[in-house]
């Protein structure tokens, strides 16, 4: 079997991003994880919605702001119901939203995001191309992902590069990375 059958893979996180931040309870920088719970607070005709994160060491909480001082009518009814029910899928969706973390100035712990590499499709195309989709933009080394896909060691992947079987022009995966034989087109977006 060739390593270069045209195939697509997708990087899928198993859990929400974790946050690194100073914990008042521990007195040092610790890791916070998604509790899967939301907090909703009403103040007159405005509401706030937060996703609750907890310190793994002392259980101190940090509220990641989703909505701040908005009218209840501005939130979709179904989404609001999910907040009230502490819906796990909604908590995961917001726990994987990089823009939300950026808006909250929360530091994501990229080293501790467990993930799976799932095959997406088998297809034939002109040239031999391996496509790796990374929709959540996890910070993952290209050689590490290839080693997991091919079921070989990272040193074997580096050997394949030296033998000019594959070319790895970027150290880390982009949102979509195409890896091909040297004659093929290679892109990383």
Features:
single chain, 189 residues, alpha+beta, five-stranded mixed β-sheet, five-stranded antiparallel β-sheet, 5 helices, 37% strand
Largest sheet: 5 strands, mixed
Average residue-wise pLDDT: 86
Low-confidence stretches: 183-189
- Total count of helical runs of at least 4 residues: 5
Shape: elongated
Q: What percentage of the residues does DSSP assign to strands (E)?
A: 35-45%
Structure class: alpha+beta
Rounded to the nearest angstrom, the radius of gyration is 21 Å
Bin the helical content.
Answer: 10-25%
Terminal-residue CA separation = 28 Å
Q: Multimeric state of these chains? A: single chain
Sequence of strands across the biggest β-sheet? 7-1-8-9-10
Helix/strand order: EEEEEHHHEEEHHEE
What can you see in these coordinates?
The chain is an alpha+beta fold. The protein contains 5 helices and 10 strands. The strands form 2 sheets. It has a 5-stranded mixed beta sheet with strand order 7-1-8-9-10, covered by helices on one side. Helix 4 packs across helix 5.
